Structure formats: C-alpha cells, structure tokens
Inverse folding.
C-alpha cells in the first residue's frame, strides 16, 4: 500500500506548499483529491511517486520509505498518469507496450504483447492499435494513456487531472474505466480532480486540500455547501438526484 | 453482477483470436522490410560512390577492387582512396544521425543537433586555436583542397574535439546548476553557438591570410582527409555510442512521452539525459574533429525516418543511422560530380540537400 505520512514540501524556503498532509491509497478505494489551483494537489502526487522528496514526513510503499525502493520495483507497484504527457508518433500498441517497461529486460516478451492486446481489446481500442497517437482525438488519447497505466498491473494508480480537456461523455468514460479496473483487480486509486460532480459520481473518498493542508477527508458526507465554500470560496448547493449527490454552484 | 476474473494465461487464446497481435506482427515486419531496403540503398550508394572519379569504375570493378581481385591500379584506387572516403562517409553519417536522434529525444526538441547546440561551433573554435595559435599553418594533406595548408592535423583534431566537448560541458554544468528545462538547454546551445562563433572570428581577425584560409577550409568539411587509424577510431566510438543508444531505446520512447510518464515507468530521466548528451556529443565531436563541420545530417536524418517509420526508437535509431549514412554518401557523390574534377565542400552540399528536405518535412507538418 502507498501512504503519505505527515508530508511537507515547499519550492521556496519561507513559503510551504504542503504541510502535515497524510493520505493512504488503500486497495479497492477511489480517492478524489480536491482543492483550488495551486493548493498542492499535483505536488502531493509527485511526492507519492518519488518525483520529489518531502522536506518533512515520509512516503511509504508497503511499509518501506519510497526513496529506498528500486525504481523498477516502484514502477511495478505504482502507475502514474501525468497531466503533461505528449502524443508523439508512436502507435497505440507501442505506446501501451511502454507500460510494460518496468517488467522488460531488454525487449518485450510474448506475454507483454498478450497483456497489451488484451487491455486494448477490453478498452475498445483494438481498431486503433496501429494508429499513431498524434492522430487520435483527446478522448481516445486519454483512454490510451489509461491503457498504458493498466498494463503496468500495479496495486496503486495515481491520476493527475485525467479528465482535463475532455468532453463530458469522455470524462465519464475515463472514470468508468478506472472504476471497473478497481472492481476487477482491487487496486487503490487516487486522482486529482477539479469536477466535484465527477468525483461524487465515481469516487468513494474525498480529500480537500486548502492552502497546503488537509481541510477535510472522508466519504461523500463531507461534501457539503460549507465545505465547498471554505475550500473554493464559492457558494454552492449540494442536492440529491437519482440517488447521487450533485454540486450546483449558486 | 460478479465480473469475470481472468489471469494472463486465460487471456492468451482470446488475444490470439482478436487478431491485434497478428496485425502488430505485420506492422513490425513492414518496419524490418523498410530497414532492409535502407541497408540495400546504403550499400548501393557506397558502391556507386566508389565508382565515381577520374577513373570511372563499374560496380563489378568496385567490388573486385575492394577484395583485391582487379588490376593493381583499380585495387589501389579503391582500397587506398575511395573505400576510406566512403567508410568515413558511412561512419560519420551514422554517428551524426544517432547523435541528432538522441539529442532530439532527450531534449524533446526537434531542432536539437550538434550544430544547434553549439557543439560544431565549439569544434570550429578549437580548430581555429590549433591552426592559428598552436601550429601556425603549414603543409596540407587533403585531396580536396590543394594548396591550403594545415601543418598539424592531429592537434587540430584534438583541439576541435576539446572545443566541442567544452561546449557540451558548459551546457551540462549550467543545466545541472539551474535544473534547466530541455527547451532552455537548446536556447543555451544557441547562445553558446554565437559565443564560439564570435571567439572564432576574433582568433581569425588576428591571424594571417593563409591561416584564415586553413581554418575556413577546415570548416568546409572533408571526408578524404581522414586516415585509416582515424577511421578505426571513429568506427569504435560510433559503435560504442550506437550500443549505448540502442540499450536506451525504450527509455527514449518513454522520455518523448513526457518526463512524468518516464519517471512513472522507472526511467532515471536525469541520468539518461546526462549520459545521452555526453555520449552523443562524444560521437559527434569525434566526427567533427576528423572531418570538419558537416551540417544538417544530424538534424534531417532522424526527421526523415520519423516521417517514414514513426517515433519508436527501436526502429528510429537504426533507420536514422542508415539515413545519415545514405545522406552523407549521396552528398559526397554530388561533391565529386557537380563540377568535376573540382570537389565541392561537403558541408555546403549536405546543407543544399538537407535544407530543402527539412523545409519539405516542415510543410508536411512533421514537428516532432
């Protein structure tokens, strides 16, 4: 299990970005990390992937400090979908095959290719397998990015704004695919999200960050008008519709 | 409803039925076929090139001459004059194209090459110091430019290599110091190019006419001035760097997709970037030190192959190497035939060949 314990981080010495933040990505859970732009959501993920080192506290992977875990071993346990990936001239198949990099010695095996083919099939990408990434639409590309993370077959999946720039139907599709992977393999997922309705529809735990500290953490019961106003400075109503909570800005 | 739980062993037969793997195998076969065709083109160009000159030779005579099975005159011409030049073109083309490919991947910039990073300009500055300050001009050993003299080609090559690596060292030191982005590194290269060009101009300003001429002719590039031991050294450096690049082919694929992706896949991005810069610069510097400045090959060859084969470095690296060799061989042939018996400067011809191709690719929308 991946766990951040009381981590702190700052880019400038006297301006801490994160303070005393804890988050455990437990198996079978889908945590939404919410908060205003610049509150440290993506930085928290970068600490949890060991891309940055916390100035205080620690990040543990299966009880071991993450910095002490070998890079490849880490990549076999944590998959990370960055908000800054580039669609280059790789085919969909080759791009997804890249997700098997942590398991390769020098070249992909028949098993690696079989896993890729299976995931492409399951995600409805079979017809796109030999198309170049830079020929795909934004929605198709994001599903390829997810497929690449899925073939890593990790216990933990971290997503940094996975639905950015997608239309509503593709946003739902991406989140549905993540949820089905949680159900199928029992993985733990944490995602930085901006759309609270998307988070309420698909996630089961919510972490609100405000000014670099955890303002609230819990199930959907913590998503209240008062909480939204405190974190986003915005008035909103939280209503029930067809058994699902919805946030309606006022 | 309970979802189906599958293991990878259960999946294999299902996948075979889906046909994705079969289609992918066909796609890989196509890439290998293109590579085989490129090998054939390079071999054909090499043999054709060895037949061109004051003594015209047929392909059969060239092949016989290579193995010492022709007349003594043909054997001598092929083995001692044309084969070394052609080998130099092939090795230099491979080294420059591989270096360009590695720069473009690790810096994620389509304009990265030895010329745009200031490495070629650093070499020219080093060569100027050697020719003007250290050796002071002298005797020429080139076939191409009779009468223009360079007293000490060895110290010229050493100083050019040092100049080129100095440029690399400055880029790496500053990028480590300030944790610069790949984009800033390319801009730093542009600044260093200007700095080294200014340094070369200043050194030339205080030199005699014959020394300036020697420097200018050095920068023209010349494949025929490279000796057999130098070819062996170039081949060794190129082979080692090719192995390094090929070992990192999957890392380059990951880095091109973004640093976050590469890091998430367990790629040590900073280390790969640093090591690739050093190895690419060593390969390019060795070629420039012995052959002089050769423009556009390192920039254009990867772009042509990216267009043809995509950006998968498993195939892009070897294909770019072959394209670089082919481009330099074709340019060398043009040097010899355009105004025969005069031999035109190779750097000008590679630019004449490379620039229109680059512009064409630009207008076709290849920007990565």
């Amino acid at each position: 299990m991946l766990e951040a314990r009381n981590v702190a981080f700052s880019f400038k010495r006297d301006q801490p970005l994160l303070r005393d933040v804890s988050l455990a990505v437990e198996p079978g859970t889908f945590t939404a990390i919410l908060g205003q732009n610049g509150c440290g959501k993506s930085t928290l993920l970068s600490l949890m992937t060991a891309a940055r080192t916390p100035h205080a506290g620690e990040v543990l992977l299966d009880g071991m400090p993450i910095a002490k875990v070998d890079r490849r071993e880490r990549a076999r346990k944590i998959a990370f979908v960055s908000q800054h990936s580039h669609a280059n001239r790789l085919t969909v198949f080759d791009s997804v095959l890249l997700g098997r990099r942590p398991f390769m010695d020098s070249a992909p095996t028949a098993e690696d290719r079989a896993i890729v083919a299976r995931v492409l099939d399951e995600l409805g990408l079979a017809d796109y397998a030999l198309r170049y990434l830079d020929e795909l639409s934004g929605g198709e590309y994001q599903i390829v990015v997810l497929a690449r993370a899925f073939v890593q077959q990790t216990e933990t999946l971290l997503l940094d704004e996975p639905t950015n720039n997608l239309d509503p139907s593709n946003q739902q599709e991406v989140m549905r695919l993540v949820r089905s992977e949680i159900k199928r393999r029992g993985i733990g997922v944490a995602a930085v999200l901006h759309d609270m309705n998307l988070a309420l529809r698909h996630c089961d735990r919510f972490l609100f960050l405000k000014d670099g500290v955890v303002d609230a953490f819990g199930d959907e019961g913590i998503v209240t008008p008062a909480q939204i106003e405190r974190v986003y400075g915005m008035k909103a109503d939280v209503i029930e519709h067809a058994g699902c909570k919805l946030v309606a800005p006022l | 409803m309970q979802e189906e739980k599958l293991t990878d062993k259960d999946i294999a037969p299902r996948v075979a039925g889906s046909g994705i793997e079969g289609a992918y195998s066909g796609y890989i076969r196509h890439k290998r076929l293109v590579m085989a065709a490129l090998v054939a083109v390079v071999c054909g160009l090499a043999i054709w090139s060895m037949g061109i000159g004051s003594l015209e030779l047929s392909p059969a005579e060239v092949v016989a001459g290579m193995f010492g099975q022709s007349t003594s005159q043909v054997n001598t011409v092929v083995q001692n004059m044309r084969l070394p030049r052609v080998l130099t073109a092939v090795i230099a083309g491979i080294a420059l194209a591989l270096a360009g490919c590695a720069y473009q991947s690790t810096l994620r910039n389509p304009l990265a090459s030895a010329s745009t990073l200031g490495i070629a300009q650093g070499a020219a500055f080093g060569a100027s110091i050697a020719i003007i300050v250290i050796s002071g001009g002298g005797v020429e050993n080139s076939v191409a430019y009779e009468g223009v003299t360079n007293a000490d080609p060895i110290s010229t090559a050493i100083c050019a290599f040092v100049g080129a690596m100095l440029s690399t060292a400055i880029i790496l030191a500053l990028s480590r110091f300030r944790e610069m982005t790949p984009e800033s590194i390319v801009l730093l290269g542009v600044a260093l190019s200007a700095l080294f060009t200014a340094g070369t101009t200043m050194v030339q300003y205080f030199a005699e006419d014959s020394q300036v001429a020697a420097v200018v002719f050095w920068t023209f590039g010349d494949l025929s001035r490279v000796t057999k031991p130098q070819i062996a050294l170039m081949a060794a450096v190129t082979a080692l760097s090719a192995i390094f690049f090929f070992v990192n082919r999957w890392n380059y694929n990951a880095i091109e997709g973004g640093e976050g992706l590469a890091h998430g896949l367990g790629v040590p991005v900073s280390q790969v970037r640093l090591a690739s810069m050093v190895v690419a610069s060593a390969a390019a510097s060795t070629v420039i030190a012995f052959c002089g400045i050769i423009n556009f090959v390192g920039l254009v060859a990867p772009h042509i192959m990216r267009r043809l084969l995509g950006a998968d470095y498993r195939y892009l690296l070897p294909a770019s190497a072959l394209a670089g060799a082919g481009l330099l061989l074709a340019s060398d042939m043009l040097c010899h035939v355009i105004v025969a018996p005069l031999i035109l400067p190779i750097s000008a011809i590679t630019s004449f060949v490379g620039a229109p191709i680059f512009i064409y690719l630009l207008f076709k929308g290849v920007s990565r």
Summary: Residues 214 and 292 of chain B are 12 Å apart (CA to CA). Residues 72-106 of chain B form the longest helix (35 residues). Chain B is about 75% helix and 0% strand. Chain B has one domain: 19-363.
